[in-house]
Amino acid sequence: MNTPHIFTIENTSEIGKPVEVFLNGKKVGHCIYADTKKGKVVFCPQPLKVHKHKKKVICKTRYGRVTVEHLNSQSKVG
Question: Total domain count for the chain?
Answer without folding.
Answer: 1
